[in-house]
Amino acid sequence: RKEVEQDPGPFNVPEGATVAFNCTYSNSASQSFFWYRQDCRKEPKLLMSVYSSGNEDGRFTAQLNRASQYISLLIRDSKLSDSATYLCVVTLNTGGFKTIFGAGTRLFVKA
Amino acid sequence: DGGITQSPKYLFRKEGQNVTLSCEQNLNHDAMYWYRQDPGQGLRLIYYSQIVNDFQKGDIAEGYSVSREKKESFPLTVTSAQKNPTAFYLCASSIGQPYIQNTGELFFGEGSRLTVL
Prior knowledge:
The complex is a heterodimer of chains A (about 110) and B (about 120). Chain A has no helices and eleven strands. Chain A is an all-beta fold. In chain A, strands 2, 4, 5, 9, 10 and 11 form a six-stranded mixed beta sheet that branches. The radius of gyration of chain A is 14 Å and the shape is globular. Chain A starts with a strand and ends with a strand. In chain B, the strands form two sheets. In chain B, strands 2, 4, 5, 6, 9, 10 and 11 form a seven-stranded mixed beta sheet that branches. In chain B, strands 1-3-8-7 form a four-stranded antiparallel beta sheet, with no helix packed on it. Chain B is globular, with a radius of gyration of 14 Å.
């Protein structure tokens, strides 16, 4: 079983749609959780951190369920510019931080 | 502006040649990392370093070597022993030590795309 698993997609949605990405992680000792965005042939960039209380940044909402070891990202009112790959990332504190990346979920937003 | 600089951005190599990818950061971060990304796959850790003059193998270290002589620099050498080196290589850094405010966020360079001819 992969340490961090994501639906690879691709998700093809029209502009204005709401889309949700799911991610599960296997290590219950995982400490920090993130969503990164990666554009084609570019480096990943932090989209948002994920907290147990849930957090929202504009059209983006992230949720963490520690009991189920599950992370989600909701994008409302999708824009063409949201087209990218979304990476679920988990870190473990093992004396330094070990970071584990999911393979990513590809999103295409169409006009 | 603080950040991570990788060079070269594109590199072509003949089989049997060693190549070195440069990574420099001015974020004053302790930890630095090298990842490899293949099409449609997640990032895989090659090597990491949490402090100067020390580094550890990641999940796919075979055929690669690194050094960490300065805090700012973490070059990666792709040796001829790496059987399938064509990939996108990403260098990253993080504060590294478990400071209270440290969440483990990684900061990436723009990447180096290596193609073996």
